[in-house]
Amino acid sequence: EMVCIRQATVEDLLSMQNTNLWCLPENYQMKYYFYHMLSWPQLLWVAEDSNKKIVGYVLAKMEEDETQPPHGHITSLAVLRTHRKRGIATMLMQCSQREMSDVFSAEYVSLHVRRSNKAAFHLYTETLKYEINDVEKGYYADGEDAYDMRCYFRKKEVDVDDSPSDLEAVTDALKQAEITA
Q1: Going residue by residue through the chain (181 aa), what tens digit of pLDDT does each one get?
Q2: Of 12, 70, 114, 134, whose Cβ has the fewest other Cβ atoms within 10 Å?
């Protein structure tokens, strides 16, 4: 069965909330979904089956802490049990992360995951290359600890090999840009 990954719309929010309620103990009021949609619409993605049913979603945002470099945060990710192990979560995450980097110039993305959630931990560390940044004791309402994880985006810089001619050309271009600025 085909699944379509697309950017979420306001019309999807109720289905996203419903998927969240089926899949996860961490639930959010509808106004929190609206807040994400109104602030960072590029970061919300859904997986839709051939019957137009939402079978997965990612809810994400940009952190607004001015003291830190720009970075995104995955608020919530869920895929219905019937549709797991098909790479849907990976695709949803990659879409949201790409937009964080391309649209908002994020340097990295963070998320929290339960210490006991082995499947999610495997997805984040093995497939998506997240690393543990910290452990947050008693992060969840039931007292369980969370791994605070991060994935750093590669910088999209000028492709330069170490030959002097390339380095000189880039240096000259930068100097020229400073003169004209």
Answers
A1: 789 999 999 999 999 999 998 888 888 999 999 999 999 999 999 999 999 999 999 999 999 988 999 999 999 999 999 999 999 999 999 999 999 999 999 999 999 999 999 999 999 999 999 999 999 999 998 999 999 999 999 865 555 555 555 666 666 666 666 655 4
A2: 134
With tokens 């899949």, the residue in question is 23
Q: Which amino acid is at 101?
A: S
